[in-house]
């Protein structure tokens, strides 16, 4: 499975971006598709994931970010609204079994940089 992210860039605080992650190869319905991020000098953290109709979010992005999945296109999206400077990070797409806290057989994308200016 290969994951390719796109959609990152520079945006002013309060603005919006939509990240896309296109998966090639087979992922099963049991695979969660998720987004993680890593800010400079910090550890990678979970942002959001989706499996079927079940979605989960990091508390600090609830109400601002929305994850969705187009199974026909094998693509997952992260709509990010009301962006804040603290959202600045490299965002990674992942496909995995298990949960975000205990991932099994995880595939990672190469990452896309999101920079939010104040």
Helical content (DSSP H or I, runs of 4+): under 10%
Helix- and strand-based class? mainly beta
Biggest sheet record: 7 strands, mixed
Helical run tally: 0
**Strand residue content:** over 45%
Using the alpha-carbon principal axes, give the shape. globular
The number of E-state strands comes to: 11
H/E element sequence:
EEEEEEEEEEE
Question: What is the radius of gyration computed over CA atoms, rounded to a whole number of angstroms?
Answer: 13 Å
How far apart the termini lie comes to 37 Å
Mean pLDDT comes to 94
Low-pLDDT windows of residues: none
Structure description:
Strands 2, 4, 5, 6, 9, 10 and 11 form a seven-stranded mixed sheet that branches. The relative contact order is 0.32. Strand 5 (45-51) and strand 6 form a beta hairpin. The model has no long low-confidence stretch (mean pLDDT 94). This protein has 118 residues and is an all-beta fold. It is globular and about 40 Å long. The protein has strands at 2-6, 9-12, 17-24, 32-38, 45-51, 54-57, 65-70, 75-80, 89-99, 102-108, 112-117.
